[in-house]
Amino acid sequence: MDRLSAKMADVAGSGQSRSVGRPVILALVAAVVVAIVLLWRTPASPGAPIASGSAAVSSSPVATPSSTGSAGQSTSPPPSATGSGSPASGAPVGGLPPLRHVYVLIMENKEYGRVVGAQDAPFLDELIDHSALATNYHAITHPSEPNYIALVAGSTLGVRDDGVHDLSAPNLFDQVEAAGRSWAVFAENVPLDCFRGGDEENGADGPGKYARKHEPAISFTSISRNPPRCARITNFSRFDPEAADFELIVPNLCHDTHDCPVSTGDDFLKGFVPRITGSPEFANSVLFITWDEGSTNEGGGGHVALVAVSPLARPGGRANDAANHYSLLRTVEDAWGLGCLAESCSAKNLAGLFAPR
Description:
The protein is α/β, with parallel strands linked by helices. It folds into two domains: 1-39; 102-353, 3-Layer(aba) Sandwich (Alkaline Phosphatase, subunit A). It contains ten helices and 13 strands. The longest helix has 24 residues, at 18-41. It is globular and about 40 Å long.
């Protein structure tokens, strides 16, 4: 380099033509560029980041950004029952807000006036004060089972009794899976392993009686004869508010007030509802509490209550439009862009229970 520098100085000082100095300078620049390229292409030592373009690629896994709850659990959507990964991003329609989870809890056999404002249901009364209430909501028919079927199929499918039925028809569980979402049924006292019997007492989750007529998923052969699908029907000992996008909750015959007083059902709700509302993911979710049928024939199956418990609902709000179990089904369908089933296609959803968007 000393000789090259001396030569360059000599050329510059001697007044020789620029045609002599320019090749030397260009040669020097070219040498520097070659050196840089060689250094850049030298393999990195083991464990060192490897450059690609202008940014290094980290060897650590990169997680998709998602919010976390207070317990540090990811609130990114869980895998669906079909293994298709995260839920479909079907936008809500019909004025509904985006909903992360939808919970439907069904009580039994009480007219609207028997539970709304009842002295023996103080917890429910307080819950209604802070939630939204459908005041003109009706069951479809009598007895119990066809109402449960209607709520998930958009039709009673010809069921007119509380017997054991094996049905073959599209249903809400199919819709949820087809959209890449997940579902679960939590039926108190139900035996595990795809139990298809009628009734059962004193399960792993405590004393009480399970009745198949109150659990509609098992009536569909596409579920009852498919072990991975019917395994999604489980009891309260495995209850998890973050287990699935759609969760159907069926208390036993005492806790749902079928066989026990309203006060017993109110005590049950007082203990169970906070398990849902206390979940970190409940901020963008809704719990619907309704009754399968009333004691009159008003509207087909009696005037019953429906309460929407949600941070997204209108606190103390009242929706007076005529509605029924098909309206509740349509609400779930519209919230996730699932389409509609049978009678739910002509039903109006329950968007009036939610705060304006």
